[in-house]
Amino acid sequence: MAKFTQAHLEQLNVGLVELGINLSEDSTRKLIQYLELLSKWNKSYNLTAITDPEAMVISHLLDSLSIQKYIKGSSIIDVGTGAGLPGIPLAIANPEKIFTLLDSLGKRTTFLQQVKYELKLYNVNVVDSRAEDYRPDIGYDQVITRAFSSLGSMLQATKHLGADTTQFLAMKGANYTEELEEIPDTYTIVSIYSLSVPGLDAKRHLIILEGSHSG
Known about the structure:
Oligomer: single chain
Number of domains: 1
Number of helices: 6
CATH class: Alpha Beta
Largest sheet: 7 strands, mixed
Order of helices and strands: HHHEHEHEEHEEE
Helix content: 25-40%
Low-confidence stretches: none
Number of strands: 7
CATH topology: Rossmann fold
Shape: globular
Mean pLDDT: 96
Strand content: 15-25%
């Protein structure tokens, strides 16, 4: 199990300053506690391949929070959340917003329920379901995916989770341009942002779309 020290908290705080994010001491403490739980549970549940503490701060926390300024509305769903990325870091950073974390693997949702309980994340709902099978009563303000397959597959799987004004946020790496051709005509690309993640050399992008929610 990885050991997290004051140095990792300082690493997180420096990264947050670079991202222009101001969080309370309680929130930054919860972010590190989340990594501690992830490291602890990873031994049995195989939740992440990244186990070095410094790398976890970068690839899990700072990467997730790199889209913080694009989070809008009051209800957000993180589809295919896995170990809770980017949903858990964003929920900690936005306690006034409700986050639904959706994943179809029971061991992941079991872990997320424990994170919710131990960190007292009252703004988090955990749902064990495939995206295609989940039918919310009301559409979400934003639908986020981070480790999803292609844009076309993402929109097909999540279109019923939105409403008329829903934004679909897809976090992507460097190679995404070919996927743009998969976007149905009923969707519009609002913006494509290049994300700068402190400490991460790899290129990251955020694609924001709006469009059809018929399912």
